[in-house]
Amino acid sequence: MGVALEDVQFYVGTKALITDRKGRILLLRKVPRRKSDKWKPFWDLPGGKTQGHGLEETLAREVKEEIGIENMKIVKLHDAAIANFKIHGGKDGLLMLLYRCKVPEESKIRLSKEHDDYRWAGKEEARRLLSFMLPEDCTHRL
């Protein structure tokens, strides 16, 4: 038996779609932080849940925390999607707003403890690696 719709809470998250001059997309490999976490590492875009802050403020804060870049420029809202997975023990949903963003070319990526790797991926590779979290119709618009 599934969870009743009235029992599902949706959270809002922001994600940065950062591309380099070759059009490759920055991906981060998210890893469990606690031994009790039951999920496996997966590829993600920089960003996080709003937690009571504004959308762009959240995105800038999360990018600074996750990759150490402070001077990111948010260009425009690119897409919105409901994540393929549930959060908080599998009962709540996540609505993600994807923003096209630019960072200075000389920026150095410094990963937080949430991630153990990053890569610049071409669109096909990014679509494949992000399929865990993003629905297919969203990945095809990357």
Describe the model.
With 142 residues, this protein is of the alpha+beta class. It has one domain: Nucleoside Triphosphate Pyrophosphohydrolase (Alpha-Beta Complex). It is 17% helix and 34% strand. It is built from 3 helices and 7 strands. It has helices at 55-67, 123-129, 136-139; strands at 10-18, 25-30, 42-44, 47-49, 73-82, 93-102, 115-121. The strands form 2 sheets. Strands 4-1-6-5 form a 4-stranded mixed β-sheet, covered by helices on one side. A 3-stranded antiparallel β-sheet has the order 3-2-7. The model has no long low-confidence stretch (mean pLDDT 90).
Summarize the structure.
The chain is an alpha+beta fold and 142 residues long. Helix content is 17%, strand content 34%.
CATH class: Alpha Beta
What is the N-to-C order of secondary-structure elements (H for helix, E for strand)? EEEEHEEEHH
Largest sheet: 4 strands, mixed
Determine the N-to-C terminus distance. 35 Å
Major sheet: order of its strands?
A: 4-1-6-5
Q: What gross morphology would you assign?
A: globular
> What is the CATH architecture descriptor?
Alpha-Beta Complex
Unreliable segments of 5+ consecutive residues? none
* Arithmetic mean pLDDT: 90
Annotation, overall tally of beta strands: 7
Helix percentage range: 10-25%
Please tally the helical runs, counting DSSP H or I stretches of 4 or more residues: 3
State the domain count.
1
CATH topology: Nucleoside Triphosphate Pyrophosphohydrolase
Structural class: alpha+beta
